[in-house]
């Protein structure tokens, strides 16, 4: 589906939420934010996801990342739904705002429409979309899940850590498959060995591959 994707500026929408009126760019501010959609309030998978995100909220906060939900029901419905979410996961308070999009215009602008899931009136519902937005208000990473598949919050957190690691090193490194914090990163192909020695004074390791091109280099970050 065409629409908002990595590298695009997130639309500066202004919507009502469970914590008052929110303008997206002001909410993001000079940090990172995760904007995530849900098909509807009072639905089973969405309730587990919202509770899971509430449980991870402190971890995201430690990293300077804000959370912002959106669902196509109104604010009054969201506030009632929060009671169920918190009851499902005792001890976790839902501290992040949930935006309301009852006319479903916002989900279209945010590219969060599921073409296969419709309500009783035949109107498209939001997909399980998640955008990680950077300080420059552009989309850095997106996840898109169908309604039948709940999101894995460990992977969302891992993706945030990867983005923050790359940003901290000004794009000179990337994270390999199954990377997690504490693992080695790979040095980008635009970085010469000479520059790499300056960037990583403790050294780096080059994988010995049949091509002998020396492109796969690992360093502690």
Description:
- The chain has helices at 24-28, 44-62, 75-88, 105-109, 153-168, 193-199; strands spanning 14-15, 22-23, 32-38, 65-71, 98-100, 113-118, 124-126, 128-133, 139-145, 173-174, 185-187, 205-206, 217-219.
- It is of the alpha+beta class.
- The protein has two domains: 8-151, 3-Layer(aba) Sandwich (Glutaredoxin); 170-220, Antioxidant, Horf6, Chain A, domain 2 (2-Layer Sandwich).
- The strands form four sheets. A five-stranded mixed sheet has the order 5-4-3-8-9, with helices on one face.
Output the CATH topology of the largest domain: Glutaredoxin
The SSE order reads EEHEHEHEHEEEEHEEHEE
What is the CATH architecture term of the largest domain?
3-Layer(aba) Sandwich
Determine the N-to-C terminus distance.
Answer: 36 Å
The global form is elongated
Number of domains: 2
Can you say what the CATH homologous superfamily of the largest domain is?
A: Glutaredoxin
What's the CATH class of the largest domain, please? Answer: Alpha Beta
Fraction in beta strands: 15-25%
Give me the secondary-structure category.
alpha+beta
| Overall mean pLDDT | 94
Number of strands: 13
* C-alpha Rg (nearest Å): 20 Å
The stretches of 5 or more residues where confidence is low (pLDDT under 50) are none
Spatial order of strands in the largest sheet: 5-4-3-8-9
Question: How many distinct helices?
Answer: 6
Estimate percent helicity. Answer: 25-40%
Let me know the largest β-sheet: 5 strands, mixed
């Amino acid at each position: 589906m065409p629409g908002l994707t990595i590298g695009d500026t997130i639309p500066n929408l202004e919507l009502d939420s469970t914590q008052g009126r929110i303008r997206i760019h002001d909410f993001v501010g000079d940090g990172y934010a995760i904007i995530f959609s849900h098909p509807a309030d009072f639905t089973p998978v969405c309730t587990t996801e919202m509770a899971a995100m509430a449980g991870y909220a402190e971890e995201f906060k430690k990293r300077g990342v804000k959370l912002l939900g959106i669902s196509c029901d109104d604010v009054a419905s969201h506030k009632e739904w929060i009671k169920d979410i918190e009851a499902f996961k005792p001890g976790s308070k839902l501290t992040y705002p949930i935006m309301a999009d009852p006319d479903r215009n916002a989900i279209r602008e945010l590219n969060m429409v599921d073409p296969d899931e419709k309500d009783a009136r035949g109107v498209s519902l939001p997909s399980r979309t998640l955008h990680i937005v950077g300080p420059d208000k552009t989309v850095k990473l997106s996840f898109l899940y169908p309604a039948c598949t709940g999101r894995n919050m460990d992977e969302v957190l891992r993706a945030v850590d990867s983005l923050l690691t790359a940003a901290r090193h000004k794009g000179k490194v990337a994270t390999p498959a199954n990377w997690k914090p504490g693992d080695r990163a790979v040095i980008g192909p635009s970085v010469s060995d000479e520059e790499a020695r300056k960037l990583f004074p403790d050294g780096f390791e080059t994988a010995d591959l049949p091509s002998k091109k020396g492109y796969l280099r690992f360093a502690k970050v």
